[in-house]
Amino acid sequence: MLKAVIFDMDGLLLDSEMISYKCYKKVLEDYGYPFTLDDYIKDYPGKPLAVSIHFINERYDLNYNEEEIIHYFHQLEEKYSKEDKVPLKKGALELLTYLKENQYKIIIATSSLGDRAQRYLNAHDLFKYFDDAVYGIEVKNGKPAPDIFLKACEKLQVLPQEALVLEDSEAGIQAAYDAHIPVICIPDLKQPKSEFVKKTEALLPSLNEVITYIKEHN
Prior knowledge:
Mean pLDDT: 94
Structural class: alpha/beta
Number of strands: 6
Radius of gyration: 17 Å
Largest sheet: 6 strands, parallel
Helix content: 40-55%
Distance between the termini: 6 Å
Low-confidence stretches: none
């Protein structure tokens, strides 16, 4: 029986992936490399920032200080998010309201830092819907490892089979699958490959359809 719903944040709850893309693009262009939206979609959604910054460092042989680049990335992100307020994804508020009214436990599980996640979510007054949160810094291994979703179950005191993960990325799907937690994918910038679709309970066009899914399957 479903007792808890675990939300990813970027690209799932918040339409924030384009801001992330702009940040990576600026970092690469500072070093003289072009960076397209297709480049971003191929390798970056759903992965922890530190993992992606290290990936860039090795791929382009930049030999930069990764901590300094992460700090610069956060500065860019704050600048861009102030210029373009990060909107909610379609159906987010309706789904959170439904879950709260029907007494499901709700938690955010994001690779993001806590202050960033809180800033984005507080802008929409969303934290009142959540029972708890797990941030990337709280687990040893980021997605696609299952650590963050297992930590979410631990915090909510539910078994993996009593939870449902909502994700938009292949890395998130894999993390939930390896945690043995059912996962629904609501794609954002990238449609998951068939090998990842097979690991989901459903592939839905928006968060609106999650309410129907829960009603039919619980």
